[in-house]
Each structure stands twice: as C-alpha cells, then as structure tokens.
C-alpha cells in the first residue's frame, strides 16, 4: 500500500488537508490515521486528480520525428496529465476499425499515461466519405474529430452528426471554412498589417460554428468545438446553450495567455491555428470560462521539429506544444492574480473534460477510483527551460517564463510516472 500524506487535496470541489491511501492501482481511502509500507510526504504540495486533456497530437504513426506516443505521454505526465485524448491526424489516420485497433493497442502499450483515441469524422480526414462509426467505436474510438481540418460540406457534417448521434459518439470539430481562410498566418488585424502577413479572418471559424450549431440542433448530436478563439464563437455557444443545443467547447491555454498584439515579430513560435486573436477575444474566452459557456481547457499540444518552426511564419507549421506548460502558466497568470479560482482551473482540467466526454474513472479523487494523481508545487518558482521538456517538440513561446505550479509528481494507477528531478 502507498500513502500520500499531508498534501492539500482537491476533493469534491474543496481543498482539504488530508491523506490518500492507495492499494494497488486504486484509491482505497481518504482521511487520516492510515499507515502504509510506502509513504510520499506531500507537505506543502497540492494534490489533484490527474489532469485530463481532450486535445493532443502525438504524431505516431507517420511523423515520429516530431513526437511519438512514448514522448508525448511523458510530456503529459510531466504536465500532470494522466489521461489524454489523441487526435487522429497521424499517417495513416485510423479511419477503419482495423487501423483503430492498432492505434488503440499502440497507445496502451507505449503510453505511460492513459492515451485515448479519436477517430476521424470522414475518410482521410478531408473527404466527404462518412465512416463506420459503429465499428470504430467498437475498436476503441472514444470520439470523432477531423482536427486540423474543418468539414467543408454542410451535408457531410449533417450526415456525420446523424450517424454519430445514432452511435452515441461526440463530434469534436476544428471549425474552419477554407474559403475564408485566406492562406492566413496570424489573426487578421493591425498586427497582420504591421508584419505584412496574410491574416486569418475570424469568419473562417465563426461561420462554421454557426452552421454546425444549427446542424447539431437538428440532429441532437453531442457537438464539441475544439479551441474556440473568438468573442463571436463564445457568443454563439452561449446562445446555443440557451436554446438547449447539446454543445460543449474547449479553450486552449495559448488563446487565454496571449493576444495577437503580443506577437513580437515574424516568429513561428506564435503561429497556431486558430491564431492568437485580439485582446477583446482573449477577454471573451476568460468570461466564457467564468460563466460556464466554455466547459474545459484543452492544450492542443502540437509538437513540431525545430526546422519546421524557424524562419518565416508563412512557411512554418501551425501549433505549439502545451502539455508541459499548461498548468503552471495558467496557475501563474490567472490564479495567482485572482482572475480564476484554483478550484475552477482544476475543474476545467479534470472533472469537466472527464464528465463531458463520458470518460470513466478519471477526473476526481474518490475511493474506488483509479489512483491517477498529480502533485504540484505552488510555492517555488521555476523557469521553463527548453532542456527540461520531455516532449520532442520545444516549440512554445513560453520558454523562459518564471512560473509557479510546476509538477512535483504524477501517478498513474498508483505508479509514479513522473517525479521532478528524476
Ligand atoms: Zn485544431
């Protein structure tokens, strides 16, 4: 048996100083007065349910020079994540039950945390061919997404949603109308003009969200919007929820932490899709989280090789890594100044993704649950260093920041999968 003693534990929505007794892979009891052969003294630390991230890219198979399941999951563990949901934009994309079976098996064998898997919405992720959702689900897919691509054809999305609803699968959408994307690099606006870069109109995102919300209303599917990034997107979701549409959405840390005005120059580490938006959009995301319009935070961890993220922004890949900076950056920039309550931030990273995605056995600390825990050090600042990242990708603009809330230890099924300094 293993005892985690003296930690400040996030339990049933409250922060409580207590101990957690772990027997094999499960939480056996919570309270004080226990004894065990193995003791971890978490005095002065925050003990939380292992974080849950419904949006990561692990690049395996096909682009393992960027990341693979082992390194991606190690990066997750270092960020306090114990369950992640991997996007299917790998090569080949798992769009048949056979490929899905192989993907799920690889995730289970190579991941040091629980790595769950999306299936694509359509064959090859860009076609209009609806897939065998029943077979994909049976093979282990937990939700559907063409992330990286919007579904361009409304009828395709409508049919996909109908079939997903019949199979009780979530459709998670990267909303992007290619006809409005303008080969853009950063947000359309003063910064794009200043840097003389092609701008991405917010309409590329918002018009597709508006379309999909109406399709979701008609089909009754659970429709989830990946990385909402604009004020109008948040307004649309707020309106849809008021209408009773079965919609959830996520915000990415970088869209909360940075606006396009903070892009220092033609620097690919600031190139993401959706792009960093205006200050007003950032404020709307914060408001959306606080009033419950935005349900969760997900990183969109998108590792790339250095050569793909250097040079001119026009030629660079979209995306930044997120697993290893998410909690500490958000804790430092939002909880410490009193914008978010720590409890809320934890909910957006644990119980909200777990419950909204129907993920069993994760997202909360309770007797009988899998012993998936993260332990954070809130008191001692650390500097985010490139040499410390466990991801193969070092493409994040947050390197060099001094942060509180670094991960001290992560346990999956009662086993240490990350320990600071080791
Ligand atoms: Zn995306």
TrEMBL record:
It comes from the Bacteria. The keyword Metal-binding applies. Residues 341-418 form the Amidohydrolase domain. The keyword Plastid does not apply. Belongs to the metallo-dependent hydrolases superfamily. DHOase family. Class I DHOase subfamily. Its EC number is 3.5.2.3. Binds 2 Zn(2+) ions per subunit. Substrate binds at residues 57-59, 89, 273, 304, 318-319. GO terms for biological process: 'de novo' UMP biosynthetic process; purine nucleobase catabolic process. It comes from Lactobacillus corticis. GO terms for molecular function: allantoinase activity; dihydroorotase activity; zinc ion binding. InterPro entries: Amidohydro_3, DHOase, DHOase/Allantoinase_Hydrolase, DHOase_cat, Dihydroorotase_CS, Metal-dep_hydrolase_composite, Metal_Hydrolase. Catalyzes the reversible cyclization of carbamoyl aspartate to dihydroorotate. Residues 44-232 form the Dihydroorotase catalytic domain. This is Dihydroorotase.
